Amino acid sequence: MSRDVLRTLAEARPAELDPAAPVDPDTRAAELGRAMRAAPQRSKRRARVARPVWGGAGLVGVAAAATLVVTTMTGGGAGGGGAPGQAGEAPLDARTVLLAAAEKAEAAPATGKFWRVKRMYLIPVQVGPDARRYTVLDARIRETWLARNGTEWSGQRTAGARPRTPADEKAWRLDGTPARWNLGTGDTVDKAPVYVQTKPGPGRLVKMSGKLAMHVPIAGPKPTFADLENLPADPVKLRTLAEKRALSDGADGRLVATNEQARQAFAAGKLISLLTEAPVPPKVRAAAFRALAGMSIVKAEGKAVDARNRPGVAFTITVPGAGATTTSRLIIDQRTSLVLSEHVASKVKGAKGGKGGLGKERTTLYLGAGWTDQAPQAPSLP
Predict the structure, then answer these.
(1) Residues 215 and 202: beta-carbon distance below 8 Å
(2) Cβ 193 vs Cβ 186: under 8 Å
(3) Going by C-beta distance under 8 Å and a sequence separation of 6 or more, which residues neighbour residue 286?
(4) pLDDT digits over 256-271, tens only?
(5) Under a CB-based contact definition with an 8 Å cutoff, are residues 61 and 364 in contact?
(6) Distance (Å, rounded) from C-alpha 5 to C-alpha 63?
């Protein structure tokens, strides 16, 4: 069993449930803007160009898909794909749709006691006998609640694994329809075994100790609600800040953007994070949509539906690099400005197929994000 898969499943567990990981997984979120590598530049201080990063929990593991709900909490569903528009339909203009979404976002309410974000991670895992491997989607729900005073609660539950495709289902049945797979020892300090099973698990809720810093990269390392209120509502200024923050957050030193396309990708990663989990004011979220609308790398693909058949418009952001080409595909509900799903995939140049190929895509599902007066509780199944 791939160690990357074991690490992915371990990281899907909230940090407070991992005795060896005091840092919330979302603080290690990898973003699209960091998924590109160009030729490194030599300098006195080590510099690097971002490359595909397949760790972290904001984009979880070897495959994560993100359903991003931007306005008030809804009962939403998990999206991870969707069909493009029907043949013969007039192509949709990315700028027009994103600007319309900005108007919807600007009118969204921003009142409530808690900022609540509910996510579902769909993690493709290869299981079964060596001679007949197949893939199951391990669904894991994570829900966080943040009070305005900085107190945070975090909940988790497994939602059950299922075969990914009809072919996988056929292989699963030939395997005797197992309900549980032991993937071996995980990478955590406690060396606990990692399991995937078809039956959903119980929900758990943990109150985090102390006051945790919000993870809003564009606003700095430890932003307060006041810092978020003061983020630029002007799309040009917000995009400039997004690029600046992206280029300075490299773990091994400053990142390097060698061309306009790379700079747009870096900025896009930070802007998209504002549309997913950050409790920023509606005017700032609207500015993020408007900033994305001005980027040439953002292309409208056409009408699409997510995994729960919610209709929207698909957008792609493709960034070719020296080592890999990374594509992010988002589906946005143009009626509400909700980002329904994001699928990120990286194709490594020269890479051959096989077991290693599973680690080049990811999907994170956000079932809801917004202000609510509802008290924190363990995650429910969608």
Answers:
(1) no
(2) yes
(3) 102, 103, 105, 106, 233
(4) 666 788 788 888 888 9
(5) no
(6) 9
Burial of residue 44 (CB within 10 Å: 0-12, 13-18, 19+) is: exposed
Quick one: pLDDT at residue 335?
A: 80
CA 382/CA 373 separation, integer angstroms: 20
DSSP codes, 323-379: SEEEEEEEEEETTTTEEEEEEEEEEETT---SGGGGGGEEEEEEEEEEEE-SPP-PP
State the amino acid at position 348 in one-letter form.
Answer: V
Q: Is 81 exposed, middle or buried (0-12, 13-18, 19+ CB in 10 A)?
A: middle
List residues bridging with 352 in a β-sheet. Answer: none
Neighbouring-strand partners of residue 324: 348
Amino acid at 363: T
Please answer whether residues 145 and 115 qualify as being in contact, where contact means their C-beta atoms are separated by less than 8 angstroms: yes
Region of residue 350 (left: phi > 0; alpha: psi -120 to 50; beta: else)? left
What is the spatial distance between Cα 359 and Cα 341, in angstroms, rounded to a whole number? 19
Q: What is the mean pLDDT of each run of 10 residues along the chain (382 residues)?
A: 46 41 35 33 39 28 29 35 45 82 88 90 90 93 90 93 96 97 80 90 88 73 85 94 77 60 84 86 94 91 82 85 78 82 76 46 79 94 90
Can you tell me the distance from the alpha carbon of 230 to that of 235, in angstroms, rounded to the nearest whole number? 14
pLDDT at 140 (0 to 100): 92
CA distance 126 to 146: 35
In 10 A of CB 130, how many CB atoms?
A: 5
CB atoms within 10 A of CB 310: 21
DSSP secondary structure letter of residue 186? -
Phi and psi at residue 370, in whole multiples of 5°?
Answer: 160, 180
pLDDT digits (tens, 9 = 90+) for 208-245: 876 556 778 788 777 888 888 899 999 999 999 998 88
Burial (Cβ within 10 Å: 0-12, 13-18, ≥19) of residue 321: buried
Look at the alpha carbons of 207, 28, 185, 344 in this order and tell me if their dihedral is positive or negative.
Answer: positive
Tokens 């075969």 map to which residue? 163
